[in-house]
Amino acid sequence: MAARVGIPCSLLYFLYYPTWKTFFNELGAEVIPSGNTTREMLDLGVKEALADACVPIKLYFGHVQALISRVDYLFIPRVVCLNKETTYCPKFLGLPDMIRHSFKKIPPLIDVRIDVREGCNALSKAYRQAGLVLGATRGAIVLAYRKAMAVERRFFSLLQEGWQPLEAMQILNTGIRPQKQKGRLVFAVLGYPYLVYDQYISVGLLGRLKKMGVEVITVENLLPRALYRQNDHLDKRLFWTLGDLVLRAAHYFLRHTRIDGMIHLTAFGCGPDSLVGKFLEMAVHEQQTVPFMRLSIDEHSGEAGIATRLEAFVDMVCRKKEVCL
Amino acid sequence: MPRVTFPHVAESYRSFKMLMEDLGNEVILPPRPSKHTLDLGVRYAPEFACFPVKILLGTYLETCPKGVELIVTSGGVGPCRAGHYAQLHKKILHSLGYPVDIVVFEPPRLYPLDFLHNIQRLNPRRMSYRAIYECIRRAWRKLQALDNVEKLTHKVRPRETIRGATTRTYRRVLEWIDRAYSLVEIEEAERSALEELQKVPQDPNRDVLRVGIVGEVYVLLEPASNLEIEEALGNLGVEVERSLFLTGWTRDNTWAETTEGLTVKEAAMPYLPELLGGHGRDSIGNTVLYAKRGFDGVIQLAPFTCIPEIVARTILPRVSEEHNIPVLTFFLDEQTGKAGMTTRLEAFVDLMRRKKAARRPA
């Protein structure tokens, strides 16, 4: 029987799921995702995780809890660094340890450490370790790795065409591109992928905007090269990959594109965002051209509150545009 | 003379003041963090920034109106937020209209040229490197003396027979060290300070509990930020051993890692093999070591939303269970009240006493 590998659908799921799924499928394993976030998962996570942790971490605990009884392995990589310069949030770095020491009964974790600063083939080595846990041969692992990387490239090019990760995953699966709608406004939604694209925890932010006729550009839709060249006016590069990208994206939007509004989505108690948010606010404040709103969400976010604020913001932007025209 | 200031970290300002003045700067002393400091910090710092950011910003905002031109502080290489404090503070202070510059000392083994450049900026007298080295050596010795005296108060306080005698003596002997200037004087002041502290009337037979304190460096070192937890514990008859002192932290972060640092790392390995920045791994490693050394309990101090300590706190229950040592965590922020903390501490001390009594053969 094929080994069942569970992948919690949170945190880096939104960026690397196609890669991971291809890799494990090629090795003959069955990949079991935990599925979309539900109220039960959030409740489970809140119960299991530390009260002081941020929502995404609590949610991840909930996703793990939902998988525990259904899988033989849990794939929780320790993603340290993927671009040779910046690392991920310390909570990502300690994620496998937090999971391992919080649950009593847990299937074996595949917690390979991915740190590309270790050498030029550190990434393939990490995948090899993951493959060896499943008992695959080295040859099979190399082939699976190559295929996974090809899928990753396709996935990211789809993102850069302007699709959101969940749409892009569907396009990868079915090969059919849905019709794109033109909106009356264009908003930049800044925030970490695990907040922006998780429909439950973001209280359906993207869907709501779409319904109101707003087109959305996110950080993942921008070319990494363009972001890399952005000057973010700091003496020191931010330590965290995702936070760094968000800040650079904000500067990119302010300088190079015409957007009608900017929404920063952040989680209550997010460590990196306390700094990134402040820098972002200052950058927007300096330009004073783009309306800006910060939405802070936590496990108690109510639909009505978010909807009201979004509608008010969209109305405000519309009126501003009419006045300017 | 450039007017400089620096963060307030417990009594260390006495040493830094001497060093800065030796190099020819005018020092504007940071006041001890108070309610007013916090109010200022909370008003201008981001809401979810950790507690030290707010205290430091408040301190700067108290000293900046006095005409500070340079702020000297430490940096960091991440991924703990502390490494970005200086940049954040600079932006906030500039936006409030204070034209200050910040000198950030990063680990010299990583950025040796930056380090020398920074030293030159703080050296308006154009002293030679050799003279600077002498100044640093004296300041370092003073820092060590301050740490040693503080360590002794942790031992004496739980055994004192007159309540508050240790603290009063401590305040007095600190002035002796403060006044000492040359190496010989500092050593002599340290010796007589230690002797004076030993003279505090003590009850050697008292049943004293031993508790280790672990956590994030700033809230550990600055008594104003942890509501004088060490003093409170001492008054409850608990001998405290703190896992971090400023001299130890500086050594670990500037030059080679110390053997103590390496032991802690090894002890934490089974639980948290990854360095998270900050002191997450040290908290776990030190808890294991305290348990092995037969301590009665461990207290973890962390600022609210501190990322590495949240990771450590998630793992600590398992450590506590496997090594059979009670662990109490305080997440500190501007809302933390003294009464709440005292209640929790008293309950924790009761728990440890009962546990110790149960362990002891009848």
Automatic annotation (TrEMBL), chain A:
Domain of life: Bacteria
Coiled-coil segments on the chain, per record: none
Molecular function terms from GO: kinase activity
Domain DUF2229 span(s) in chain numbering: 4-221
Keywords, alphabetical: Kinase, Transferase
Lineage of the organism: Bacteria, Bacillati, Bacillota, Clostridia, Eubacteriales
UniProt xrefs under InterPro entries: CoA_activase_DUF2229, Dehydratase_Activator_Redct, FldB/FldC_alpha/beta
Pfam families linked: DUF2229, HGD-D
Name of this chain's protein: Predicted nucleotide-binding protein, sugar kinase/HSP70/actin superfamily
Organism: Desulfofundulus thermosubterraneus DSM 16057
TrEMBL record, chain B:
Matches recorded under Gene3D superfamilies: 3.40.50.11900
Keyword Electron transport: no
GO molecular function, one term: kinase activity
Keywords noted in UniProt: Kinase, Transferase
Xref: InterPro entries: CoA_activase_DUF2229 (IPR018709), Dehydratase_Activator_Redct (IPR051805)
Keyword Transcription found: no
Top-rank taxon: Bacteria
Domain (DUF2229): residue spans on this chain: 9-71
Designated name of the protein: Predicted nucleotide-binding protein, sugar kinase/HSP70/actin superfamily
Organism name: Desulfofundulus thermosubterraneus DSM 16057
